[in-house]
Amino acid sequence: MNPDDIRFLRLALGLGRRGLGRTWPNPAVGCVIVKDGRILGRGTTGLGGRPHAERVALEQAGAASEGATAYVSLEPCAHHGRTPPCTDAIIAARIARVVVAIGDPDPRVSGRGFAALREAGIAVEIGQCAAEARYDLGGFLSRMTRGRPEVTLKLATSFDGRIATASGHSQWITGPQARRWVHAARARHDAVMVGAGTARADDPSLTVRDMGATHQPVRVVVSRRLDVPLMSALARSAKEVPVWMCHGPDADAALVDAWKGLGAEMVPCGLSGRQLDMGSVLNELGRRGLTRVLCEGGGALAASLLSEGLVDRMAGITAGFAMGAEGLPGIGALGLDRLDGASRFELVEEAALGEDILHVWVAGRPAEGL
Which residues form the signal peptide (predicted)? Predict the structure, then answer.
C-alpha cells in the first residue's frame, strides 16, 4: 500500500475517534472519500450510532464519488438495521475501491460486507493500520467477541499509590490539567463506573464539565444493596443524565422502587460470594449496549475487576508527593503471595499533565477484528 493510502486511512481512523463515547451500541467509525488525491467527503458515525460514517462521507461527495476510493476504519455493514446497508450506498455511488483497516466481527456483517463489495466489482483492500483500528475500536470489538464492554481503570494517586489520607481527604491529589484529562476521558467513554463506597464518600456527579460537552456518559454505580443516599448528586440528577444502578438479587425492593422513581435504570446482577459478580455486571452492561466503560474506583471495585481479569486498560495519573502507609490505597487487597500471580500490562502511552504524569497500559492484545 502506498503512503497516500496509509495517510488517508489514518485520517479515517482519526475521524472515527471523534465519535468515541457517543455512538454506542454501534462502533465509532470514520470514512474518507478520495479521488485523484483530493478529499471529496469525510464522515464520522453520528450520535447514537446513526447515520453511519460511510453515508455521511458519500453524501458530502455526491456524484463525484464515482471512481473514487473510500477509506473506512471498519468493514462496512451489509445488513438491514434501522438503515439500509452501507455496502448498498457504496455500490450505488460507483466507488471503485475500498480500503478498510479491519473486519467487523458482528455476525450480521463479518465478511459479508467485503463479499458484497467484491461481487459488485469493487476492489477491496484490508489490513493496513489494523493495530491502530483495533485499539480505537477495542470496546466495540470486546462487546462483539466477549459480550462485555472494554474496561479502563483510571487511578489518580500520590507517588506511593494513595488516593486519600487516613481521614479520607482527597481533594485535590492531581492538578487542573490532569483533572481536565479525566473529563476528556469521560467524554470518550460510554459510561463512567464507580463502587458504592466511592459514591457515598465522594458524592460525585461523574459528568463531563467545562469542555462544552453536549453529550454525557452513563453513570454506573455498582452497589449490591443500593446503599447510596437517595439525596446524593447522582440521585438528584438521574432524570437529566442517565444513572444505572447495578444491584444484587437481595436488594431491598423499596430501594429498587425509590431509585426507579428518581429516574435510574436498574440493572440486576448475579453474586460471587458476598459481592456482585463483576463478570455478570459487565455482561449486563454489554447486553444493554455499552462498549467502553471508565472505572473511577474505589479500591474494592478496582481490586474485584483486576482479580477477575476484567481490566483491559489502566490509566494512571501520578502526583509528585507521598502520603505514607496510613493513606488509603488506590486498589484493595488482591490476595497475591507471589509476583508471578499478578497480571502484567504493557505501557502504550506516557505524558506530562502539568506537574503530574499520565501513564496508560493495556492488558495483553486487544480484541481482534477479522
Answer: none
Q: Report the catalytic residues.
A: 54
> Does 312 carry a binding-site annotation?
no
pLDDT of residue 177: 96
Do 169 and 129 share a structural domain? no
Handedness of CA 26, 284, 242, 310 (dihedral sign): negative
112-170 pLDDT per residue, tens: 999 999 999 999 999 999 999 999 999 999 999 999 999 999 999 999 989 887 777 76
Question: Is residue 370 a part of any domain in this protein?
Answer: no
The answer to whether 132 is annotated as binding is: no
CATH of the domain at 125: 3.40.140.10
Mean pLDDT over 64-93 rounds to 92
- By residue range, what is the domain housing residue 223? 147-363
Residues 321 and 176 in one domain: yes
Clarify whether residues 308 and 181 are in a common domain: yes
Task: State the CB neighbour count (10 A cutoff) for residue 346.
Answer: 10
pTM above 0.85, yes or no: yes
In a domain, 368, yes or no: no
